[in-house]
Amino acid sequence: MAQSRHRPDSPPLLHAIGITKLFGSFKANDGIDLAIRPGEIHALLGENGAGKSTLVKILYGVLQPTEGRILWKGQPVGIPNPSTARKLGVGMVFQHFSLFEALTVVENIALALSDRKSRSALAREIETISLEYGLPLNPCSVIADLSVGERQRVEIVRCLLQNPELIIMDEPTSVLTPQEADDLFVTLDRLTARGCAVLYISHRLEEVKRICHHATILRHGKVVSECDPQKETAAKLATMMVGVEVRKLSSDLPPPQNTRTRLSVQNLSMPQPHPFAVALSNITLEVKAGEVMGIAGIAGNGQGELFDALSGERPCHAANSVSIDGKPCGDMGVTARRRMGAAFVPEERLGHGAVPRMRLSDNVLLTRHATGDGLLRGGVLNPDAARELSDRVSRSFDVRKGTPDPEAGSLSGGNLQKFVIGREIDRQPGVLVVSQPTWGVDAGAAAIIRQALIDLARSGSAILVISQDLDEVLEIADHVAVISKGHLSPSRPTSGLTREEIGLLMGGMGEPHSADRGTAYAG
Ligand SMILES: Nc1ncnc2c1ncn2[C@@H]1O[C@H](COP(=O)(O)OP(=O)(O)OP(=O)(O)O)[C@@H](O)[C@H]1O
């Protein structure tokens, strides 16, 4: 491994002093001091809504602070926009990539650069940087053909071409397999060896312990602690973030044996809905009452297409391909499936799971109007009941919000996730299909959501969790199957499986997938 040039006593590269950010009367950042030194990987930790994104948006010029100053190499600077940040030497790799699928790597990168170069010169530069930092990429590849890990490399190379001295990374490993995450850590190593600093937001505390030199911990917009994460346990870091000990999951009750099948998928095949989507091929699975089944896989292998087929957002012609409680429903829409007792939580919470400009009390109606649930009085919406329901969900799932009934778009990502999942679990559905249940959610909130999923299963529901987070799958699922290029492997009991074994299956390097046999263990 390359030697980091991090020295705890070197003068800060970036020093934010007394940063406060008000949204109306709400203080999202409250007098934050943050010093980032050359060559260090500096973790920015905090529970959902702690103010991490607000702070990094200020450092990258997307938001302006209400109060406070920023020193760059000791000199006061204003960062009115991201292009000023980039000129200073601050780069950012976002969690959601902004690449054009139909264009090549070099075409995408050219779009982001202000100075015009010939394509061939740029392609050579991309190759040099790829080689230097361990980011293998072919400049001529079309983005649509790349894996998620490769797409992230494009974002990183794009950022490196602007010679940053500080790179901000927002949950960079949440979309990667364990093997791809290891490759990313090698790149980070090489960056820090050259003196580049990294501000690293992550809810994955084991990885923070492994790679970060320093951590600043935020709670309610303030810095509550700083530490060397390598000297702390993950549990201690979680406690510092949340302020109380994070409870361990309990699934004392094993999954019940010989229960009835509640969700059944038989030989489900669907063509790709558009040229960049994945066709589903002969998918078969069963989830029984009392059981949590996990579907692992690298993003973009058909998870979204499978979710749409199971939820009825994209019904298929063969009714028998999907059955809920023994009743064929493959050709039915989402409302009809909800009336059969099923609930669905999509991956994209803003815009798909919730409408940003609607209040939470209106958002509860989106998925529950069809099933009644006491929200209608004489066929007319009862706003008091909707508010009561929204309050109940917020209390049970610890949704933190500035006002009693805010617009969904003003919640932090993790808090909105808790709300959307809580709204569906509150219905006590017989079948729940949920995609990425704890994406962007802090350790405390992830434990609440995962426990709620286990409890719902043990009360007799069948739960299907589609997740890229292997630790999550191993923690809560009784069985796991891996989706790859629209095929689903037979499922296996999770007990005894390691994350490396599933990671290899996800990357297509494990046993040859046998989905075409059309069988799935679900006993
Ligand atoms: N544009 C906005 N208007 C009103 N409130 C906002 C706005 N942006 C953020 N907030 C509030 O500021 C607080 C901090 O949000 P922020 O997104 O910075 O948290 P975070 O630590 O990044 O959380 P997460 O881990 O969930 O992404 C939250 O309570 C959020 O509701």
From TrEMBL:
Matches recorded under Gene3D superfamilies: P-loop containing nucleotide triphosphate hydrolases
Domain ABC transporter, chain residue ranges per copy: 14-245, 263-510
Alphabetized GO MF terms: ATP binding
Keywords, comma-separated and alphabetical: ATP-binding, Nucleotide-binding
The family this protein is said to belong to: Belongs to the ABC transporter superfamily.
Protein name per the record: ABC transporter ATP-binding protein
Organism: Kaistia terrae
Species lineage: Bacteria, Pseudomonadati, Pseudomonadota, Alphaproteobacteria, Hyphomicrobiales
